[in-house]
Design brief:
It contains 16 helices and 18 strands. It is α+β, with helices and mostly antiparallel strands. The strands form six sheets. Strands 12, 13, 14, 15, 16, 17 and 18 form a seven-stranded mixed beta sheet that branches. The chain has a three-stranded antiparallel beta sheet with strand order 6-5-7.
Length: about 475
Amino acid sequence: MATADATRSPQAEFAYLARLAPRDAMAYLQGKRALTSTFSWQDLWQEEHAIQFTVSRMANMDILRAMSEGIEQSVNGDLSRRDWMRDMQALLQKEGWWGKKDVVDPKTGEILSTTFNASRLKLIFDTNTRAAYSVGHWKQAMAAKESHPYLRYITKGDDRVREAHAAWEGLVLPIEHEFWQTRYPPNDYRCRCRAVSVTEAEYARGGFMTSSLPPGLEGRERGKEGERKTVFHPFKTTLPPERNITFTNTRTGITVTVPEGVNPAFAYNVGMAGMRQAALAEAAGIKLTEAPAAIGAAFAQVTRSAMSQIFPDAVTRLVQETAKTMQSKGESVLIHVVVPEVVDAMEKQGHPLLTAGVWLTDDVLLHAIRETKAARVATLPQSTWENLPSLLNGAEVYLDTKDKRLLYVFSTATTPTGRVEKVAVAVNYTEKTRLAGTKHKRGKALANFIRTGGLVDADNISKDIRYIRLKE
């Protein structure tokens, strides 16, 4: 938890914050696995950044993914900023994106120029990592608000701090105060401000003390009596005079009012946004494991936009981790929701679904990856498993009347001519697993589970009477 310390200077506070465990920051970054190509910083607006990763005017999705994954590695402690910048420069040079490059804005048809250099890479890295740590700090602060009901705004305290941000230095307000809804740092590009938790007792004292040695004596472990300088830093408990500015997003036409000193793109609480996204994912998992199939399917239709971001994130993580470790942990992720049309059709066919969620276990995934690495002819490539949520959404759906399973059939750019890719789903099936994102602990779970996947001749599906088409 990021808490205030009565003896820490602003510089010491920043050093402490930098050492915090990255777990919550990592969770936020992992929730941004959806990649979005944008051509203006206004295209992806405020809270949309909680679920999507973008770099303005970067149209190469492979590079976007490499950037996102590298930042995630860095926050996890596996990659320094210097290493990330080195790797990204090499990749951009290889792909022809280093330096100045012209791109076409699909919204206007206008030819725009963009530049990727060391300064741009540093800005991309710092913006994303600072947002990630801010989410982690907010989550910790909320968890501790009973004992630490206030937050204190702190800056770096140097001549690079923006004037408006300097005015908020030492400001202590309740964590529920509306100030933090739009000014919880970072508040602009390259903003280095932070917020730390404050206890009721610390608040009652009205400030904190720092003790330091005079210049030239800092290297000593202890100063002689009288050498150390003690300073009391009073808290500010009321907002300084300020004004709002009006900003219009020229890409969407939306006009917003933001506090002066806050970049309009940062005028939201990134921690709140990250926690809302996590809560939505958990609510979806619970709803789709506990609700009857018809209700779960309808719920997914209403929240389709958000669900389309959640499923790919979890599946990508599971596939990549399983492929990397070649081990299973007995976990499952929610990968798809059966649409109302298919729920109704299964009811009419005499095979009603109990729930609408479709889950993928890492055991099934591990077996599939092993088969692929063994160069089995009929196996699905790893890329299919990674993109399965979107593929299932667009697939034809059949009932296998022999095995009483749902069969999802689709094609990709790599599917051989005359063949199709299929995934078989065992309905109302009991599996020993842990349903990720739900209250269900490892044990027997009754749900719909993907059991197999592979390549088959197209005619084997379309001309075999055992398969009844439920959705085109």
